[in-house]
Automatic annotation (TrEMBL):
Subcellular location as annotated: Peroxisome
Any GO BP annotation: fatty acid beta-oxidation
Name of the protein this chain belongs to: 3-hydroxyacyl-CoA dehydrogenase
Catalytic EC class: oxidoreductase
Domain 3-hydroxyacyl-CoA dehydrogenase C-terminal intervals: 473-557
Species the sequence originates in: Sphingomonas yantingensis
Alphabetized UniProt keyword annotations: Fatty acid metabolism, Isomerase, Lipid degradation, Lipid metabolism, Lyase, Multifunctional enzyme, NAD, Oxidoreductase, Peroxisome
Amino acid sequence: MTSPITTRREGDVLVVLSNNPPVNALGAAVRQGLDKAIDEAAADDGIKAVVIACEGQTFFAGADITEFGKMMAEPSLPVLVDKIEASEKPVIAAIHGTALGGGLEVALAAHYRIAVPSAKFGLPEVKLGILPGAGGTQRLPRVAGVEVALEMATKGDPIPATKAKDAGLLDRVTDGDLLTDAIAFAREVADARPLPRTSEAPVTLDPAVVEAFRKTNARRFRGLDAPNEIIEVIETTAGKPYAEGVQRERMGFMKLVMGKQSAALRHIFFAERKASKIDDLPEGTQPREIKRVGVIGAGTMGGGISMNFLSAGIPVMIVEMQQDALDRGTGVMRKNYEATAAKGRMTAEQVEGAMGLLKPTLSLDDLADCDLIIEAVYESMDVKKDIFGKLDTIAKPGAILASNTSYLNIDEIAAATNRPQDVLGLHFFSPANVMKLLEVVRGAKTAPDALMTAMAVAKKIKKVAVVAGVCHGFIGNRMLMPRQVEAMNLLLEGATPEQVDRVHVAFGMPMGPFQMADLAGVDIGWHRDPTRIESIRDALAAEERWGQKKGKGFYDYDEKRQPSNSPRVAEIIEDFRQKTGTPQHEVTEDEITERTLYTMVNEGARILEEGMAQRASDIDVVWIYGYGFPPYKGGPMFWADQEGLPKIVAGLEKHGFEVAKLLRDKAEKGEKFN
Ligand code: 3H9
C-alpha cells in the first residue's frame, strides 16, 4: 500500500507532504510516514531543514477519530510529536485550511510555523468529550499563555490566522505561495541554534485567572467531564516540567476517551455527517441549481427562514398579503441583523449586503423566477393547499416547492399541484435563523434530485438536515407528543410541573415540558373557546395563562421572567384531579423518567419501524439540534442503548405502555439501535 506521506528534496530542504483525503486525519499510515520522514531527514547530511505540509483542502484536521477505542498502531501521536520537536534539524509546519486537534499539536511541536491568512487553528477535542492528548495542554500554554490555552482547549472554537499570530501560535503569515515561502523560511532558519522547542518554554500561572475562568464558565461547563478535566490538567501542570505535564495529560485523555460522554459526542460527530446521506438515491443523481429563493409569509418563521439564505448570499423574494405585515416582517429581520452587528459578529456592510438581497412583494406572481419556494404561513391544510395550487400555475418548471409545516401531510399538500415530484417539506425550527436542525420531509412522490437539492441547500445555509417520512409531527414533534401526554397525566396523578421539569433539567435538557410550554405559548393549538374546558391546558388558556408572554402559564413569572410555582395552577390541577377522579400516588423521579423519556424512545423505535427515519442516529441528530437534548448523552436512541434496551422495555411495561416491536426485538436479541 502506498503511504499517504511522500518526501522530496528541494535543495537542502526536505519537503514532507501528506495526502490523506478528505481532511488529512493523522491515522496510523500518516503517523508512520511522518515518523519515517523525520528519520530520513536526520540520516541525510545534505538536508538542513524540514517542511511539513499537506495537500488537499486542509492541514491535519486532527487525530483519526475512527481509531479511538481501538488498539493504537505505533507510533502514537504523543510519541510522534515529541520526535518532531526533538529533531536536530529545524522543522517548519506550513499550514492551510484547519490545523485542528492533533494537527495543531503537530504544528506546535514543529520549531516554526507559517500559514496562509485563511488558515484556522483550534483544539476541538473538547467537542468530542476528550482533551488534547498529544501535548496540546502543555505546548499551547507555553506558546500562547494559560488564558488563551484555557479558552481554546475548553471551548474548542478555532481562531483565525491573524489572531493566532497575535497569540504567538504563528511565526509568519504569508499571502504568497505557502510551500515556496515555507521552503524559503526553512533556509533562513536552517542554521539557527538553539532551536525553539516549545516544550522547554516556561509557563506562568496566575491562579486568579483560572478561578475567574472557572466562574465565568460554570454554567456552560455544567455536567461536562471534558472541559473541567482540561482546566484541571492545565492548572495543575503549569510550572511543572513538560514530561510530568504530559503524563497527567495522558491520564486525563485515557479517562475521558473511555468515558460515556466521549462515546456519545463521537457518536454525534459521525451521526451528523451520516444524516446528510440518503441511502436509496439512484446513482448519478445531481442536485438542481438554487440561485433564487421565494418565501411566503413574513412572520417569525418566514423571516427567520429568509435570513438563512440572505446570510449565505442567496437572494430572497418574500411575500405577504398586507403591506404592514410585510414591513413589520422585514423590519424584524433588519433589527435581528443589527443586533448581531452590535455584538460584533457582523459588519454594517454585511448587514446592508444581506438586506440588499431581500425583495419584499405582495404578489405571489413575483415568485415565477425562484428555484426554491418555501411556504411559511400558519398551519391550515386548506390555506396551504390553496397556496400550492396557485404556486403550481406560477412557479417555473423544475422549481422546488416546499412547505414549512411542522405536522401536516406533505403528500396531501403535493396533491394540490400537478408536480408532486417537486414538492417536499422543509421543517425549520424556531428561531429559524439560529436553530441548526432542518427536517427535510420526503413525500411519496418527491423526486430524488429534489430531495438531494434540499440536502445540498441545507448544507449551504449551514443547517444539519435529516430526512423524515410523511407522518404526523415527522420525527421530532412526533416523539414530543407521548412526552407531553405523559407529562400532563403525571400532573393529574400527583406530580407538580416543577417536579417533572426538574427531572428533565437534571437529565441535561435545557428545560422541561412545562417550561417549554410556557416558552412556546400555552395557547398554541388551543380551540379558543374559554367556556370549553376539557383539560388542565384548556383551563390555563381560558384564564389567559398563555406562558411567558403573559407573565403566567404553568408558572408565574416576575418582570425578569424568573419563574415561581403558581398557587393558582396548583388549584387548577387539584380541581381537575377531583373532577376526573384520578387516583393519586406519590410520583418518583424514576417514574417521570420512564413515562416521559422512555416513551420518547418507544416512539423513536416506531418511527424507525415505519421507515420514517433512515437510521437511529438521524433521530439522535434531530433531538440534539432541534430540542436541546444533551449532546453528551448522544441523543435519545444512543442514550437508550447505553441505559440498556431491556431496562427501557421493563420500564415501559411497568406502566402498561405498548412496547414498539423493534424495541422489543432488539432488547430480546441483545442488539442496539446504534
Ligand atoms: C484529536 O486530534 C485528539 C488528539 O489531541 C490526541 C490523540 C492522541 N477523523 O466535517 P466534514 C471525516 S481529536 C476521522 O464533512 P468539512 C468526516 O467524518 C480530533 N474522520 O468536512 C467526513 O467523512 P465522510 C480533533 C474525520 O469540510 C469527512 O471527513 N479534530 C475527521 O465540512 C469530511 O468531514 C477534530 O475534531 C477526523 N478527525 O469540515 C476535527 N474529521 O465523508 C474534526 C473529519 O465519510 N473535523 N472526518 O462523512 C472537523 O471539524 C471537520 O471535518 C473539518 C472539515 C472542519 C476539518
